[in-house]
Design a protein that fits this description.
The two termini are 30 Å apart. Strand 3 and strand 4 form a beta hairpin. The radius of gyration is 20 Å and the shape is globular. Helix 1 runs antiparallel to helix 7 and helix 8 runs antiparallel to helix 10. It contains 13 helices and 15 strands. A 5-stranded antiparallel sheet has the order 1-2-5-3-4, with helices on one face. It has a 5-stranded antiparallel sheet with strand order 9-6-8-7-12. Helix content is 33%, strand content 23%. Bound molecules: flavin-adenine dinucleotide (FAD). The site of flavin-adenine dinucleotide has 21 residues, from helix 2 and strand 5.
Length: 377
């Protein structure tokens, strides 16, 4: 338990030990001085524990290294009977696999050893665009997904809001103007235009403090997945936009339409590192999400209704177009979604068997009121 929010590194800088309560910005700050980082979170204040049990991911070069949880060397965990044990590639290998995306179903993780990656100095550029540029940006984004995302040195953050749209171009090494991002360079930004910046991952993460909603009274995410399909992206965006504006006008809620790329290399990278329960297919994907932030509980149904209708439309249109994928990313899923079931029947059964083995009294199914529990999957 001493590791609650601590971060240390071993002598040869290959492994960082991180407490589950550590915020990602503190992890990057500690590792920055050693010239390395880990595959972790974007939001500086997000905690490492829950993030990792949901597999964790995105732009910390997931395309190259796999999900964050694929880069765990060892979990220290307290089981339901009070035993402190370790799960890694040699010991409790079934539990190790289950913890890489299986959620809060197996025990309390008290410490994680993470393989470091040799990334510190990076290039990035932020751009803010008028919301009427969203269709042009969606097209640029899909073009980058099809042509540019196979260069796993780069990734793109893309968040459409009601008034402005944000695009972050992120490159995992120093650069001038990475060529894979070409589809974005000629789209006019709101002045002052974002400055291409050579800096560090730690600085970038500091700048991303605007992600999320610390301080907002009520918050929700929601997840949906599809293959790369620019028409689907556009159709769902056009469906969402007037409804989102109406919900904003009625409740004051801040709502976004978020694109998160998962290149096909993620599946191979995960497999190479021992696999995880998520059952990700080896194809370029979009893990769509939305953030909803509002203040009044009386508006819960109105605000959440927007994202529910949007993911229903995503599923309907995606199925009709053959681009829908059932996978739901736990870290972006809403409380009524069922990410564990989306991993596929076989993986779900395996997770249940592992939970029964390590928690025979099913303590963690019974004492937890919330979270994505296998008993409810
Ligand atoms: C601003 C912001 C940015 C985000 N950015 C990203 C991102 O870039 N990538 C991404 O993948 N996700 C991202 N997320 C989602 C985030 O990963 C999830 O919200 C995650 O659950 C956060 O973990 P936590 O420990 O802080 O949360 P909690 O709500 O405390 O925990 C989530 C679940 O995990 C369980 N849990 C937590 N710690 C432990 C432990 N030590 N042992 C056993 N069970 C535990 C809890 O019981 C709960 O069920 C972001 C979220 C926010 C708010």
């Amino acid at each position: 338990m001493q590791y609650l929010d601590q971060v240390t590194i071993n002598d040869d800088k290959s492994v960082a030990t991180v407490g589950p309560g550590s915020k990602w910005i503190n992890v990057y700050k500690t590792l920055d001085q050693y010239g390395v980082s880990v595959v972790g979170g974007r939001g500086p204040t997000v905690g490492a524990g829950g993030f990792m049990l949901g597999a964790g991911g995105y732009f910390h070069w997931t395309g190259k290294y796999g999900m964050a949880a694929d880069n765990v060397k060892d979990f220290e965990i307290v089981l339901a009977n009070g035993t402190i044990t370790n799960a890694n590639a040699e010991n409790n290998t079934d539990l190790f696999w289950a913890l890489k995306g299986g959620g809060p179903n197996f025990g309390i993780v008290t410490k994680m050893d993470l393989y470091t990656i040799p990334i510190r100095n990076i290039w990035y550029q932020f751009g803010t665009y008028d919301s009427n540029q969203a269709p042009a940006l969606i097209e640029a984004y899909a073009k980058w997904q099809n042509d540019g995302a196979s260069d796993t040195r780069g990734t793109v953050g893309f968040v459409i809001g009601l008034e402005t749209t944000f695009v972050g171009l992120f490159w995992s090494e120093p650069a001038e103007k990475p060529e894979p991002f070409a589809p974005f360079y000629n789209i006019t930004q709101i002045e002052p235009a974002g400055t291409p910046t050579n800096s560090t991952l730690m600085e970038l993460t500091n700048q991303l403090a605007f992600i999320g909603s610390e301080g907002s009274a009520r918050h929700d995410y929601r997840a949906a997945t599809a293959k790369v399909d620019v028409e689907l992206y556009n159709d769902v965006y056009e469906f969402w936009k007037p409804k989102a504006q109406a919900v904003h006008n009625a409740t004051g809620a801040n709502v976004t339409f978020v694109f998160q790329p998962v290149p096909k290399s993620v599946a191979a990278a995960s497999e190479e590192k021992g696999g995880n329960p998520m059952g990700i297919t080896a194809e370029d994907q979009m893990w769509w999400s939305t953030t909803l932030d509002w203040t009044d509980a009386a508006d819960d149904d109105t605000v959440r209704g927007l994202s529910i209708e949007t993911t229903d439309k995503w599923e309907e249109l995606g199925k009709a177009r053959g681009s829908y994928l059932p996978h739901l990313f736990m870290n972006d899923a809403s409380r009524d979604q069922n990410p564990l079931a989306s991993y596929g029947e076989e993986n779900l059964q395996k997770l249940k068997d592992i939970a029964a083995k390590y928690d025979p009294t099913q303590l963690f199914q019974e004492v937890q009121n919330s979270g994505f529990l296998l008993s409810k999957a």
